[in-house]
Amino acid sequence: MLKLIYLIVILFSLLNIDPEYLLGSWKITKSQALENLVLSESYKNLIEDQQEKVNRLNKLVLDSAYYRFTKDSVFWSDVNQREEKLVHLKGRWLIKGDTLYVFKTGKVEPYPYLIEKKSTNEISMRFIFPDGQIARSRSDFQRKLN
């Protein structure tokens, strides 16, 4: 019985992520979704101009995507695909268990992410869709030293 209690305590401690852990800047290092896209049949069926646009957008994401967490705010980048430019966003954030909730300023619904892997300098996240399904692809980030 005592072993079971220890196991439960250990499991809960692994699922709960200290919010202090996220403080600082994180740069994307890998996006499985982008990799899967360029390997897909849909991509292969695009005309050359469309493939080049996808490649430019992917490069923009991989060169520029970041999150910067402070005690009360989060700053991050996204890509405006139509204009092919980087957009800088701001919001609030909250961690519950192993889930990160990012609240974009002016929006009610958060962007939920399952935090899948963590180390001192690395984090992997998967988006959680509104129906509760977890994305198959993950994004990997590396802590950026200022």
Any overview of this molecule?
It is a single chain. By secondary structure, this protein is α+β, with helices and mostly antiparallel strands. It has one domain (18-144): Lipocalin (Beta Barrel), CATH 2.40.128.280. 29% of the residues lie in helices and 39% in strands. It contains four helices and eight strands, in the order H-E-H-H-H-E-E-E-E-E-E-E. The protein has helices at residues 2-15, 32-39, 41-44, 48-64, and strands at residues 24-31, 66-69, 74-80, 85-96, 99-104, 111-118, 122-127, 139-144. An eight-stranded antiparallel β-barrel has the order 1-2-3-4-5-6-7-8. The longest helix is centred in the middle third of the chain and has 17 residues, at 48-64. The model is unreliable at 4-14 (pLDDT under 50).
Q: How do the SSEs run, as a string of H and E?
A: HEHHHEEEEEEE
For the CA atoms, what is the radius of gyration? Answer: 18 Å
- Summarize the biggest pleated sheet: 8 strands, antiparallel, barrel
Contiguous helical run count: 4
Low-confidence spans: 4-14
